[in-house]
Every structure is written in structure tokens, then in C-alpha cells.
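Figure caption, in words: inputs first, then the predicted bound structure.
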Amino acid sequence: MRKKLAAGNWKMNLTPNEARDFAAKLAPKTKGDSDVVFCVPFVSISDVVKAVEGSGVSVGAQNMHFEEKGAFTGEISASQLVGAGAKYIIIGHSERRQYFLETDEIVNKKLIKALEHGLIPIVCVGETLKEREDGITIELVRMQLKRGLLRLTPEDAAKTVIAYEPVWAIGTGKTATSEQAEEVCGAIRTLLEELYGKNTAEQIRILYGGSVTADNASELFAQKNIDGGLVGGASLKDDFEVIAKA
Ligand code: PGA
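Bound structure (2-phosphoglycolic acid present):
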């Protein structure tokens, strides 16, 4: 049985003090049967880790570099994240792919490094509106994953979380219907079975992300192949309490 996961992606919002106060208030309210993680800006990780102590909520980061350490001005390594108390790491979010030119190859390097350090990766994939209209969604997502997960062992794959996030649904208020989301998440499960076998594929959590709200969360998360959500806008509101409980 896969445990549901509600992951908040705070993006580039809140100062460390604001993040600490918000996390301290929200964390106890999210208690339930699901895993909950707040993926916060680098500078707030330590403060939020302290703020959520004892609540069961974990803290994650939104990006990392794939090298171990060294002359990479402005970058953050996996061991630095672990040292700051992060447990999860978002890899290959569409905003990173779009604005910072991250490729599937970079996603793959980051994923391998994150796993090496015991971080739980949340690997994001998804199509643009044009790609959906061109009818290549499933093929595209399969290719993003085949390249992104290259050389992963089944053991490491089992620890990895996949987030299906249609780019056209992120921050737009245009949520995918539960049928659209389930179709792609089911196709992802099929690919994972081809790559790692049925047993492993059944253990891997697949999230949906893109305009998840308190109103649509329970229907989305009730789908067979959707094991929770990666939530942007609504993770900074009280809605996240409802989403975590859904
Ligand atoms: P959204 O963002 O919930 O605001 O659409 C989701 C995400 O970017 O992960």
C-alpha cells in the first residue's frame, strides 16, 4: 500500500521569519494519514525544520546541484541540504526546465546525487499545452522519465516520487480533470513496470500537480494511480490543511 503524500512547493515566497511562523501554524493542522512535506526556499530550511519539529511534517528543497561540492558559485549541494535538515528534494520542476534550461540529463544527474545522499527526490514531468494539443503527451512524459531515471536501480526507483505536472495547469487555475490526470499517471505506472517490474512500480508514489485546490484535491487523489499532490499556490494558504487531509 502506497502512503499518500502532500507536498507543498512554496517557490520563491516568504522570508525566513515569515516561513517559520507560517510553518509553525500550519504543520500541526496537517496531521493525518498522509506524509506531508513543505518544500521551502534554501534560506528558510533550517528555520522551518525547527518550526515543524514534532509535527510529523518533513522539509524539502526545490532544487540542488548535481556535483558533490566545489567551485559552483551560488549553487547548493545535496549534503548541504541534508545538513540543514531537508528530507525531500524537488527535481526538474517545469519552472526550472523553462527558466533555467534544465534538461532530462541534468535531472538524471541530480536524481542520482540526491539518492546517494538519502534525499527523497520528487521528479517532475509534464507536457505544455502545445504538446497536449499535438497529441504527444504520453510519449513525451515517457521520454522525460526514461531519460530522467536513466541508470536507476529498482531499489532507488522505489524511493523516488514522480510528479506529473502538466505545464498548462501550473499556476493557471486550469486543473487537469481527474480523468486526464489519471490517464497520464496510469501511463507512468505502466512505464515504471516496464523499467523496474510490477513489484517496484506498485511501490512508487506518483503525484499530480497543477492548480490543486481544497476543492479538487479529494477527487484527484481518489484516482487509482494518483498518490497525492505537489501543490504550489494553495500550499501557502489554509487550503493546504484540507489538501493534506484529502
Ligand atoms: P500550482 O503549482 O499548484 O500553483 O499550480 C504547482 C507546482 O508548481 O508544483
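The beta strands are 5-9, 35-39, 58-61, 88-91, 120-125, 161-164, 205-209, 228-231.
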